[in-house]
Design a protein that fits this description.
41% helix; two-stranded antiparallel ribbon; alpha/beta
Amino acid sequence: MNFENIRLGVAPINWTNDDMPELGGENTFEQCISEMALAGFTGCEVGNKFSRDTNVLKKALELRGLQICNQWNSYELTSKTFAENRKNFTELLDFLEIMGAKVIGGGETGNSCQGQMNVPVFEGKGMLNSKDDWDSFTFGLNELGKIARDRGMKLAFHHHMGTCIQTMEETDRLLNETEPENVFLNYDCGHFHFAGEDPVAALNKYIGRTAHIHLKDVRPNVLQRVHDERFSFLTAVKNGVFTVPGDPEGCIDFPSLFAIIKESDYHGWIVLEAEQDPAKANPFEYALIARKFFRGLTGI
């Protein structure tokens, strides 16, 4: 195939950071979505400045030719009851269904250090320590995936730094212990590289189970500082560990990633999600860099 089944989206976290609202706090919702459209993207995920009034949000997006394609869901299967998780999950499904999205994303935050500013990311990551922990976690995720499937949507779980699903070994177990029709992957090349994995090998392995793709690059000099100076995940982001595909400061092999996607049966969104400090990396400028780079590799 070529890329006729692929659509390109962008994440608002590049403009306003959900975990650190002070990053990009000056950027308005209208500026964010206008610059997304102006950069040439046709879809976006949902940020903290997006209206929860679906009529208001739909009108603002439709004026700019944008479509909601996904939203992060904070699973807390390791720290809250399944009933609490199901309530939050179905409420977000209600919203996404109205907005026309087919994917619900997110990762496990219940025992994660990803949002803790003072916990070194390589020392404080979430863990599933026993078979009972794994069984409870994957059972809950599988049940939520059934709920999404019954509503014509896909649960695309995001492996993420600082969480219990960070490495390929952990991702393997997650996918092996859930049903393939219920639980899919939100593949993210930046998080796999950050975790010490080969993102090309990971995509090659998981593309058949992938329902959503995030593309970002990693600055290797900053990643080395994360190790040497024991940065938290949020400190790493503030210091620029991530950047956009197409930035010469990055190191990920995107031509190989796109070659895998091209040869696969992947249908869905590829989303630029490269959170940086907007005061240091103008989000519109960097969105244009990535969009030009994507066009050069895909023709779209």
